[in-house]
């Protein structure tokens, strides 16, 4: 059995960064920027007022000063002329500050009569002017690769970038296998259960920026599995779930091999997730996940997510880890690297009592996978330990 790190490096060698494609900005959030973009303009493109009030010369901005109003500057409609000492221009937020002015006095500090204003007794600091290019200037870069956030999209829009080059979304085909499975909403027979893994994995993968195709459930026979692999044609990554172990009905490995899968490994020294297999199948990478629902989801976090990140151009790295203090003493660990369902709160981590790999209710209330290395020594409350946030 190989280690988790070894398995991960095999998996990385099965995939590669995908090509870039153009996307309209309104569809770009969550996509990974593939080419660095630079601002096409300064923001603001002129010195702009930050307040509603009067543009003046700062030497005139003294309590009690009387100034004559010579015009108006509104957002989208600047004042054409310049401004001299003793003069003021009525101005609104976002309007270009007229030439000659270097200060905006807010209207709350001004009394106006006709075209004359008198400044109040106490003026704030000002100057309430946003200098040209204060936010960004022509040529300022947003560097690739970068997963675009809503704030990034707003910034790109302001930079006048209507489309961006982003990594193509990896296409993942998800195949549940097993005679016992029916889809949610169907009527299960007395010996049947509902297929849950493909749904959890689809959600996880799509949250990461992949497109997941849910294929029909494959039954525990060669013909049905072959049909499922046929339907997976065109995917970048084919993921099967179940049928990976040693039972008489665990046929995924054999059928995949008969279809040309070149296996890179089978079985990983981890818990849960031991009967993991992977290889190359034509153009696609193939990963066979164990069927136990928590095993499949843990393998999703530990293996599939880093593969997706690599395909999106975000580099080759394991799932990001953090650390927290143990909330209780724990016994020595087992021979396999253990990803324990746990809850992190206020910097401390508490492992769930029940760690069976069938328990989705336990997984759903956990927010962390606490990682115990193989043959980990007993640990005391308060020690730091690593985890993967989920
Ligand atoms: N003699 C041994 N038996 C088992 C071993 C072993 O080493 N020796 N390994 C155990 C471990 S660890 C795991 S994990 C499981 C994995 O087995 P399979 O990958 O072959 O999975 P199945 O047998 O098909 O299913 C296991 C379990 O999960 C349920 N399942 C399967 N697919 C789904 C799905 N899409 N949604 C929800 N639930 C699913 C299935 O009904 C079974 O209950 O093998 C152990 N056995
Ligand atoms: O190791 Mo198996 O992956 O669930 O328990």
TrEMBL record:
InterPro entries: MoaB/Mog-like_dom_sf, MoaB/Mog_dom, MoeA-like, MoeA_C_domain_IV, MoeA_C_domain_IV_sf, MoeA_linker/N, MoeA_linker/N_sf. This is Molybdopterin molybdenumtransferase. The lineage of its organism: Bacteria, Pseudomonadati, Pseudomonadota, Alphaproteobacteria, Rhodobacterales. GO terms for molecular function: metal ion binding; molybdopterin molybdotransferase activity. It is an enzyme of class 2 (transferase). Keywords: Magnesium, Metal-binding, Molybdenum, Molybdenum cofactor biosynthesis, Transferase. Residues 173-310 form the MoaB/Mog domain. It catalyses: adenylyl-molybdopterin + molybdate = Mo-molybdopterin + AMP + H(+). It comes from the Bacteria. The gene is moeA_1. PANTHER family: GEPHYRIN, MOLYBDOPTERIN BIOSYNTHESIS PROTEIN. GO terms for cellular component: cytosol. Its cofactor is Mg(2+). Catalyzes the insertion of molybdate into adenylated molybdopterin with the concomitant release of AMP. Belongs to the MoeA family.
């Amino acid at each position: 059995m190989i280690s988790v790190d070894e398995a991960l490096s095999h998996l990385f060698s099965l995939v590669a960064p995908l090509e870039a494609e153009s996307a309209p900005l309104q569809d770009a959030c969550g996509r990974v920027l593939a080419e660095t973009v630079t601002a096409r303009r300064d923001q603001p493109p002129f010195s702009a007022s930050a307040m509603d009030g009067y543009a003046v010369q700062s030497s005139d901005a003294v309590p009690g000063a009387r100034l004559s109003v010579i015009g108006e500057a509104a957002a989208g409609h600047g004042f054409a002329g310049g401004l001299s000492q003793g003069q003021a221009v009525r101005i609104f937020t976002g309007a270009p500050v007229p030439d000659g002015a270097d200060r905006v006095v807010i209207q709350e500090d001004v009394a106006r009569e006709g075209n004359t204003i008198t400044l109040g007794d106490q003026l704030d600091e000002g100057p309430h002017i946003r200098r040209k290019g204060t936010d960004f200037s022509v040529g300022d870069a947003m560097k690739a690769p970068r997963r675009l956030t809503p704030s990034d999209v707003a910034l790109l829009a302001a930079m006048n970038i209507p489309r961006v080059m982003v990594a193509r979304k990896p296409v993942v085909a998800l195949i549940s296998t097993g005679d016992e499975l029916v889809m949610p909403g169907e009527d299960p027979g007395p010996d049947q259960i509902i297929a849950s893994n493909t749904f959890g994995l689809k959600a996880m993968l799509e949250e990461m920026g992949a497109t997941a195709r849910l294929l029909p459930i494959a039954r525990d026979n060669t013909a049905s599995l072959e049909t499922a692999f046929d339907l997976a044609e065109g995917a970048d990554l084919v993921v099967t779930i179940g049928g990976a172990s040693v039972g008489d009905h665990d046929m995924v490995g054999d059928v995949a091999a008969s279809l040309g899968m070149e296996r890179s490994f089978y079985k990983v020294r981890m818990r849960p997730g031991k009967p993991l297999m992977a290889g190359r199948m034509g153009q696609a990478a193939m990963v066979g996940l164990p069927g136990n629902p928590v095993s499949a989801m843990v393998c999703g976090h530990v293996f599939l997510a880093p593969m997706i990140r690599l395909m999106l151009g975000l580099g080759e790295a394991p799932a990001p880890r953090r650390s927290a203090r143990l909330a209780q003493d724990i016994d020595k660990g087992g021979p396999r690297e253990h990803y324990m369902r746990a809850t992190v709160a206020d910097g401390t981590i508490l492992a769930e009592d029940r760690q069976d790999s069938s328990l989705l209710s336990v997984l759903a209330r956990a927010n962390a996978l606490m990682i115990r290395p193989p043959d980990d020594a007993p640990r005391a409350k308060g020690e730091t330990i690593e985890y993967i946030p989920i």
